[in-house]
Amino acid sequence: MSMRQNIETKIVAELSPEHLEVIDESHMHSVPPGAESHFKLIIVSGMFAGEPLIRRHQRVNSILAAELNGGLHALSLRTLTAEEWQKKGGETVASPPCLGGGKADKET
To answer: Which residue of 15, 36, 49, 99 sits 20 to 30 Å from the alpha carbon of 105, by its own alpha carbon?
Structure first.
């Protein structure tokens, strides 16, 4: 199973999201092709209701602890309730380009 599929499976099982996007952003970083090491997750779940942002992120990090200890290098999280998602019009901000890991050196 790919890292992306594994993440999806675990998040669905643990958080029953109303909306889930698992976006592989590895290609934006200085990693080998197919690395599956950098992901952005957009999770809309009723289980986040009443929880502060830090607790939501801790919950997701806990669910994905094995992945974070085994190849998943970076995780960008957008954790929202359905009401918050609706207020944002169902959209999130695009990730900025990566300038770390040698990319900045190549551009100069």
So the answer is: 36
